[in-house]
Every structure is written in C-alpha cells, then in structure tokens.
Task: inverse folding
C-alpha cells in the first residue's frame, strides 16, 4: 500500500466512455504497463429513519477489491469505520423490517454507484482506469494512480505528478482535495475511500441536476 | 465483482459463522481455582498457562419510536491491547425448544477500527450499559470456554475504578458455527457434564442482570 490519487477524467461529448477508456488504456500499454486483473470500488447508501435523532444520517458502505475482506462505512459527517466484511450483516440487521416494525436504516434506491475496470502495473505504479456506473448507467471515468513505495503524499507528489501527466495531461495539476489537507500524514486505505466518496457524490449530484424529474433520488 | 452479491452468497452458502450455541453458569470465587485447574486438564494446550483476558464491553442500543424494535450492539476491546475493537450483534436466545441441549442465538462478529464508539454514537446509537470482564480463556477444539469476573464501572469512561458485581465468576461455553448442528450441542453437553460438580448451570441471560447496574 502506498499513496493513491484519484482523478475524474473528462469524456468529450463526441466520444463514448468506452472509446476514452480504450485510448487511456492504449496509452498506458505504450508506456509499458501490463494488465493485472480487474478492480472494483462500489458504494451503497443507507438513510437513517430514527425519529428521536436530531438529524437524518446518510451511511455509505464501500468495498474496494484491493482490500477484499474489508468494508468501509462512511457517515455523512465524514467519520469512517474500517471493519470486517461481516459488518455489512450488522447493517442489514438495522435495515431489517420485522413484522409490524419499522427499520432504522433504509437503502436508498438507485443510489448504488461503482467504479470498475482494468488494473495496470507499471514498475512501482498501479493505475486503475474505472468506468463509473450509477444505477446501471455509465456516468464518467475515474483514474486511480498508486505509487507503492511511499506512504507520505508530500514526499512523492512531484514524482506522481510527472508520471500522471505522461498519460493524463494536465488533469493532475494539483493533489486531490482530500489529500491536500493531509500531505504530511501517513496514507491509509481509508483515504482512498474518502476520495472515491467525494467523486461519487459529485457524479450523483451531476445526475440529479441533469435529470430533475426522476423521483427516486 | 458485485460485492453485495458476494455477501449474499456468503450468507446463503452458510460459510459465515452466525449461530452461537452456548451454555452459561457460575462458580463461587472460592471454588474458581479448582475449576481453572480442571479446565486446564480438560482443554487443549494443557501444558501452557491459561490465557488471560481483561476486556471492556460497551453495549449500545438503538431505540426509535414504539414501532421500532430496540437493537443492541456490543462493542468490546481488550484493555491489554486497547486499539483492537470488536463489534457483536447477539440475537435473542431461543429458549422455547426444550429438546435443544444448549441455548442458541444469532450472532454476528466483526472486527472494527478503534473509532467504533464515535461511529456508533453518530449513527444514532446510545450507550446502554458497560462493564469490565476479567478472566481466563480456554479452548477445546472449536469450543471456547471462558471463566470471567464481571465488574461494574463506578465512573463512566474510567476503566480503573471498578467494583465486582458479585462474588462469583461467570462460566461460558460457546461454539460459533455457520448453522445449527446437533453434534455441537451434544459435544457441549458432554463437556459441561464434566464440570457439573463445580458449576451451577443457569438457562438465563447474564445481560439481563447487568442491565440493572
């Protein structure tokens, strides 16, 4: 585990998502990267239904194929719980409706979002080109770049920037917002999830803004 | 790659350990050493000193309107390794079936990061009660045997100021398995028989007593 930066990659209107993904992958292969399987980061959201609580809570449940036995739960306040996969069963307990009883949390329909695609390795770098899929519709592209030998973002930012610019152009001019605030701390898998959450939320917002008539969002 | 599907699969294929068979009893403090001696002989790794534990458990409750059933989560961590937290859901023990040799309840365990207390609070849970358990741990095959003394915490948040809850030790036999199996109950009953001279078995939930703390 090293330092990871996640960036959205724009899809021009005249091109399809798949075409852009193919172009990036081709560029990576030209650089000498080799395929090393698939990856997937997914997120389900649950809304609280507790009348006694002062405010409604949104709970995001994440999985990352890089940490297959772990489940990350992020509340909208930003606190992130890292746990075994079985924590999900505990959340299911809260969403369970017993006969005549109401549940405490309920899943938000049409809110499932995931980023999945090809994983590449190139020397000390791991690059993942992910297609973002929200409620089974393609919404955009996220590129994740990991530099494995270093866990302090500020120590390797210039190196990562140079590498990323070689195939992403000027997309990676600045560190991602979440990383910017903790450049000198040790990077953890939780930080990856926080970056994805930020991007996923942006995609969700963009979707609900462009399709205001959909009732289930 | 659909992980919720994977989770569903884990549950439906019955690989995840979610059923706990258990028996509970108590032994007077004065007879505890004899029991420990006997357990050392009966359980695995008899040549080693028994493993000790010193845990702090906080029981959280989620309560809503009368239409919502209260739900408890048990967060536990060792005071010897304070950062290792563990979260547990325990269902209600099935006491209706007299034919069952042990009590059986639904049980889900998950290791969690050390911010679990803040996380549960923000999720809407409230602290119901807390206690300290200190004692010995043995295992025989997949059976877990604990002999522990429970302490109540005099000042919330301070795990040093404690007072024993009773003059007895709690003895628990437990096997967590993916599904209900008759054989487990059989094995546990046979094991419990061998401790009978020392322990008074009760078919009751210890936590009911603790709630009055």
Result:
């Amino acid at each position: 585990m090293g330092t990871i930066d996640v960036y959205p990659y724009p899809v021009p209107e005249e091109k399809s998502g798949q075409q852009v993904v193919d172009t990036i992958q081709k560029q990576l292969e030209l650089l000498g990267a080799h395929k090393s399987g698939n990856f997937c980061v997914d997120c389900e959201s649950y809304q609280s239904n507790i009348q006694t609580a002062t405010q409604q809570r949104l709970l995001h449940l994440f999985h990352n194929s890089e940490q297959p036995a772990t489940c990350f739960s992020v509340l909208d306040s930003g606190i992130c719980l890292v746990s075994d996969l079985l924590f999900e069963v505990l959340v299911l307990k809260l969403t369970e409706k017993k006969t005549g009883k109401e549940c405490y949390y309920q899943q938000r329909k049409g809110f499932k979002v995931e980023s999945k695609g090809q994983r590449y390795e190139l020397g000390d770098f791991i690059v993942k080109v992910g297609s973002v899929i929200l409620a089974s519709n393609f919404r955009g592209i996220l590129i994740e770049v990991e530099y494995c030998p270093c866990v302090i973002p500020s120590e390797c930012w210039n190196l990562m920037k140079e590498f990323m610019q070689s195939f992403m152009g000027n997309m990676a001019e600045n560190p991602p917002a979440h990383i910017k605030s903790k450049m000198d701390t040790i990077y953890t898998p939780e930080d990856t999830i926080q970056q994805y959450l930020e991007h996923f939320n942006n995609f969700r917002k963009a979707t609900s803004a462009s399709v205001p008539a959909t009732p289930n969002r | 790659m659909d992980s919720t599907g994977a989770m569903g699969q884990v549950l439906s294929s019955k690989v995840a350990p979610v059923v706990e068979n258990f028996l509970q009893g108590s032994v007077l403090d004065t007879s505890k050493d004899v029991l420990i001696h006997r357990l050392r002989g009966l359980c695995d790794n008899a040549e080693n000193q028994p493993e000790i534990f010193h845990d702090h458990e906080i029981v959280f409750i989620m309560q809503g309107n009368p239409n919502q059933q209260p739900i408890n989560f048990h967060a536990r961590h060792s005071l010897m390794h304070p950062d290792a937290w563990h979260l547990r859901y325990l269902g209600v023990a099935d006491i209706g079936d007299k034919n069952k040799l042990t009590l059986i309840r639904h049980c889900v365990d998950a290791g969690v990061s050390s911010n679990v207390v803040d996380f549960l609070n923000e999720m809407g849970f409230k602290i119901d009660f807390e206690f300290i358990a200190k004692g010995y741990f043995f295992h025989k095959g997949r059976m877990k045997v604990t002999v522990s003394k429970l302490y109540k915490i005099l000042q919330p948040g301070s795990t040093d100021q404690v007072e024993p809850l009773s003059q007895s030790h709690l003895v628990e036999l437990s096997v967590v398995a993916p599904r209900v199996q008759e054989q487990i109950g059989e094995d546990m009953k046979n094991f419990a028989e061998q401790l009978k001279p020392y322990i008074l078995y009760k078919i009751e939930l210890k936590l009911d007593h603790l709630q009055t703390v």
Notes: The two ends of chain B are 47 Å apart (CA to CA). The first strand of chain B starts at residue 19 and ends at 28. Residues 203-213 of chain B have pLDDT under 50 and may be disordered.
